Amino acid sequence: VLESWSFLDTVESNFRPLVVIELAKGTKEETIEWFTKRIVDKKANGGAQLLIKPLVMENGVENIYLVGASHLRLLLGAETVGLVKECTDNSMRTFTYSSRKTFKDFADDNHNFLTMAECQYIIKHELENLRAKNEKMIPGYPQAKLYPGKSIVRRLLTSGILVQIFPLHDREELKKLRHSWYGRVKVGYQPLDDIRCYFGETIALYFGFLEYFTFALIPMAVIGIPYYVFAWEDYDKYVMFATFNLLWSTVILEVWKRICAILTYRWGTLLMKRQFEEPRPGFHGVLGINPVTGREEPVYSSLKRQLRIYLVSLPFVCLCLYFSLYVMMIYFDLEQWALDYHKENESNFSSLMLYVPSIIYAVVIEVMNRIYRYAAEFLTSWENHRLESSYQNHLILKVLVFNFLNCFASLFYIAFVLFDMKLLRQSLATLLITSQILNQFAESLLPYWFQRRYNRRMKKRTCSQKTDRDLSIAEQVNMEKEMGTYLGTFDDYLELFLQFGYVSLFSCVYPLAAVFAVLNNITEIYSDALKMCRVYKRPFAEPTANIGVWQLAFETMSVISVVTNCILIGMSPQVDALFPDSKMDLVLTVALVEHLLLAIKFIMAFVIPDKPRDIQMKLAKLEFESLEALKQQVRAFQMQL
Amino acid sequence: VLESWSFLDTVESNFRPLVVIELAKGTKEETIEWFTKRIVDKKANGGAQLLIKPLVMENGVENIYLVGASHLRLLLGAETVGLVKECTDNSMRTFTYSSRKTFKDFADDNHNFLTMAECQYIIKHELENLRAKNEKMIPGYPQAKLYPGKSIVRRLLTSGILVQIFPLHDREELKKLRHSWYGRVKVGYQPLDDIRCYFGETIALYFGFLEYFTFALIPMAVIGIPYYVFAWEDYDKYVMFATFNLLWSTVILEVWKRICAILTYRWGTLLMKRQFEEPRPGFHGVLGINPVTGREEPVYSSLKRQLRIYLVSLPFVCLCLYFSLYVMMIYFDLEQWALDYHKENESNFSSLMLYVPSIIYAVVIEVMNRIYRYAAEFLTSWENHRLESSYQNHLILKVLVFNFLNCFASLFYIAFVLFDMKLLRQSLATLLITSQILNQFAESLLPYWFQRRYNRRMKKRTCSQKTDRDLSIAEQVNMEKEMGTYLGTFDDYLELFLQFGYVSLFSCVYPLAAVFAVLNNITEIYSDALKMCRVYKRPFAEPTANIGVWQLAFETMSVISVVTNCILIGMSPQVDALFPDSKMDLVLTVALVEHLLLAIKFIMAFVIPDKPRDIQMKLAKLEFESLEALKQQVRAFQMQL
Fold it and tell me: Got a GO cellular component term for this one (chains A, B) (predicted)?
């Protein structure tokens, strides 16, 4: 099919496949020819100037293409996407081709200067920025309309001609990474820099946060154990524990920002300039002029979107919240029934029955969360947000509110309506442990098991003797294209967020929660690592400088937990006993303490700098340099006069 | 003295004096010669390339110099400081000399393209950036050390050779401004754009805030009047008023951000890039290398500064706070004594005596605030901050905390310890009104009176018949150099901040406070305008994009006022009567309402965007353009390959 190669092809001796493009079976010849021509065409002609090769499968069907690029093309692409790399003087700078010699490890023949993940990110960026010129439609598909500036790949995706684009795994590297990550049982840090090199910054930052969070929970867990073991119930000890927890959670969230700055500075993303955001693939509307860019693109009225949000989405979310509360009330009826049953006919069976409602409820919560997730995705997509980021924010807000209520409403009810601390402790334990087990199972182990079975069957079908390493590129592509797609870190963060809620909201009632959280997170690191390396297709690297809206979500949770813990301590019989004469004094004292704690929290968040001093200095130095460079330009111009 | 004029001088036909430099009397000839040479020298030789003329006074003493600049020099300077001006297509863009033709009202012979305040700001910037080359000291003054890169003007100032630098008033413009600002009694907005043209953005923004704040208080005042007139004491009405106040104060602070964005966009400062901050004039230390710039400059260990802050300043502030509380207790003793006296011998005199303690206390508070202010300035200066901004932040924090406690401690004591709502209302009224009268008197009217007297005496001494307009430049300079120096908007904002406290902290007890605040602010606008135009030297314009730390201060105050108002309402007998059975329920309800209000406040602050949609769009457009320009560069480079 492909005769017209890019001129760069002659320079490049060996073609290294980086990204796989899978077209729909039976795609018309003219479409393929047009698309591949656009990919290999010169930049000057509006092409992407990449290399592409068809992959001939055994059955002769030719719908899979491998995309690569010459070394020079990748370096120029690195400049376009604004990659930040380390210089020979150990400072981080935005890579430009003209200053390439000043970068560490750069050599014209060193093809490892850019990591494979970076190369794949560049290729993805170039493919997505392949834009229609004068084409009114995709050749061969009159219903797939195009207009000048429309991303070709996105239109191909939405019209179903392009099935998927995914980056290839590097079997060698992956094996090394697997070994250092979870290959041996060891105590130590994860190889975050290696993870970042292989999977990109977003995923590495998630694992960094997971690890940091686990370490940060250890003090809570250690302090919590004796409370459980010795069944301490003293007033002052409980207050101590809760106060420590509350201040500690503020400290760890502030310190995380600093660690995050250190990590992302080292990875270069802290300095990366934000790119202009194009409309998200699903965005649709009447063709108009974007007032910002002045370009033709679909336009959708902001008022219409607001109406959809406030008149449809908001009521729907409220309805779901109401439904969740309704289910909760059914749970309490069930609980009561089980208790009555246990009282009437006491037996081993009946005492086992006591736990059944909680377990059922925990399962129902998980199921409801998952169903609601689909509904939220559908609604947010229907709200037709122009930007991926605003889509994500609306989705996260919807999901967070529902999951928060769904998971914690019963606990709030038990604590502040029933005042039953024993039941609270028991429910908390059941919910926490059940949801952890369910999550680990549904998220990693089940998909892994399916993947293994599928792989084994695939191998048997081809040539059963080969190990992973000997697989030909065709076989590798064939295997990887059937793997599941990793949908991003959303679910992983959400899980941590809810766990943080279980640990902090009622920490003074159930100090053991932190212990379970730590244990869960240790296995979580391994199961998530397994998931990334074994179950899913390799995801495209996504540069990021922080964990975004999750920082805010965790901070909000820690504020709410101050309120709940103060109330819980105020309600405990030990504290009650301290104010025998006046309940008023008790409540006032609790309110005072709560306000003090909140004030301390805010002051601490304000006083602790978000970036360590040396990172601040390095950033200031870069800013100073760019200002100086600008001044030099002005001065040079003035001297000419 | 001056023979060597800049080459630009030949181009410029008329010298327009913009800035006055006053040297100490008896400054050595060689120093003057060196300094003026550096000012007129070419940029290429490290000079400022400005114009300077000595001003010969009647008594023959020659220590005052007038600084000006050619039109071309000012345009180039506008590019250096990064001024943002309006283009012919109504968008705001950073001015560059090469793109000058695209700007609105630009013409090579239009010398009003830059306002006089902008020209003066440029000259100030150029003078301050006049840096030592190889000079080891100021010629003639071996004790005034210099090192490469040290600002000459700052060293001249700190060593006392340079008495002051100030911009000249423009008598014509000032007269017009005075007329449109406060010349006639009228209902309407202030001429903010004119104020900004004459005094610069910082001062215009203060007046903008003052005006906005006054308008924003009117609804509170209007709703508050009937409460006073009809002596409404119903529970629900009070709650309504307080709730309205609390939400209203959040709304006005959020809306101010939007208005501020509109104003500063129009003025161009919203888009101005932050310049690199040089050390403040008073900063001293051992000569070392600045790690950011790599230049020689004084270096002072951050640890030493921290020690000074935490071991000296912090204890001192605490001591002052304690002292303030001590004075407060004396006030209460006095109050008690006056009450006893009134009871024993009831007469007109004794009932008048009842008000005496409050008035004395109000005066003492003002005096203490002013004394503490000096102490805080001394301490903060001794802490030796490198940057003016960090100096300002530490000073503002110190002053705010003390003033807050000093002004409101007695009210808190009366409200939450004595539970005396009548006394609270009375004290609040006395404090508010006394402090307002004192402030207006001490801030504007007294200096104005002194200034008038001085002016009259001066005029008599010279030639008594002349009006302001006919004054020669020498006489004008002579008069203006003796005027007081405006020390910035700090005190003005502080006054508004405390007023906001009086209005919002106890709004549900004394609804009339807003009325007094509105009345005060209307006269405040006039007296402040008078102060700016008549009493003080013209200040240098200072570009700014927002009101800085004051926004945070006002927001904090509005959070505190939620707490105080909820407690006050909870304590009122009307609310008490609603919960006859259980005080507990009352306290819990109040706490619940408080938390709800706080939550609503935070959500509102989060939901209301900080910038109006059209400003957001304009900013996005500019950002997009600069990204596109960068891409074009990269693309042009790639095409060459």
Answer: plasma membrane
Q: Tell me how many domains chain B contains.
A: 1
Residue B31 lies in a domain: yes
Indicate whether this model's pTM tops 0.90.
no
Dmax of chain A from CA atoms? 102
pLDDT given for residue A4 in this prediction: 35
Which residues of chain B, if any, have pLDDT below 70?
1-14, 57-61, 185-187, 233-236, 459-471, 631, 633-641
pLDDT at res. B1: 32
What average pLDDT is seen over chain A? 85
Mind listing the pLDDT tens digit for each residue in A276-333?
A: 777 887 788 888 888 888 887 888 888 899 999 999 999 999 999 999 999 999 999 9
Residue among A273, A584, A624 minimizing CB distance to B583: A584
Cβ neighbours of B623 in A, within 8 Å? 276
Contact A583 B588 (CB under 8 A): no
Binary contact (A76, B276; C-beta < 8 A): no
Contact call for residues B153 and B509 (beta carbons, < 8 A): no
Question: What are the beta bridge partners of residue B53?
Answer: B66
Helix (H) or strand (E) holding A85: strand A84-86
pLDDT of A166: 94
Q: By the CB < 8 Å criterion, does B187 face chain A?
A: no
**What residues of chain A score a pLDDT lower than 50?**
1-12, 464-466, 469
Pair A283, A386: CB distance under 8 Å? yes
pLDDT at residue A202 in the model: 93
Q: Does B72 touch chain A (CB under 8 A)?
A: yes
Sign of CA dihedral A284, A290, A296, A301: positive
- Of the candidates A89, A52, A36, A59, the residue with the CA atom closest to the CA atom of residue A618: A89
Domain residue limits at B59: 19-168
Residue B24 belongs to a domain = yes
Strand A162-167 versus strand B92-94 pairing type: unpaired
Among B100, B129, B562, B634, pick the best mutation site for testing chain A contact (most A Cβ within 10 A). B634
In a domain, B134, yes or no: yes
B634–A583: do the CB atoms touch at under 8 Å? no
Q: What pLDDT score does A606 carry?
A: 86
CB of B79 less than 8 A from some CB of A = yes
Chain B residues 220-249 within an 8 A CB cutoff of chain A: none
* β-bridge partners, A131: A151
Is A338 a member of any domain? no
Q: What is the mean pLDDT of chain B?
A: 85
Backbone angles phi, psi at A288, to 5 degrees: -150, -165
Whether B98 sits inside 8 A of A637 (CB atoms) is yes
Q: Helical H runs in A421-548?
A: 421-440, 446-461, 473-480, 490-505, 513-530
Decide: B77 and B125 in contact? Cβ < 8 Å: yes
* Contact list, A628 vs chain B (CB under 8 Å): 276
What are the tokens at B559? 């959070």
Contact assignment for A638 to B43 by CB distance below 8 Å: yes
Phi, psi for B623 (deg, rounded to 5): -65, -40
Give the pLDDT of residue B400.
Answer: 92
Chain B residue whose CA is closest to A636: B44
Q: What is the pLDDT of residues B39-92, one digit of tens each?
A: 998 888 888 889 998 887 666 667 889 999 988 889 988 988 889 999 888 888
For A591, the closest of B591, B623, B624 (CB atoms) is B591
Partners of residue B43 in chain A, C-beta under 8 Å: 635, 638-639
Contacts B275 to A, Cβ<8 Å: 627
Q: Which of A45, A390, A634 should be substituted to probe chain B, the one whose Cβ sees the most B Cβ atoms within 10 Å?
A: A634
Q: Identify the three-state secondary structure at position B140.
A: coil
**Whose structure tokens read 């095409």?**
B639
This complex has an ipTM of 0.82
For residue A69, give both structure tokens.
């690029």
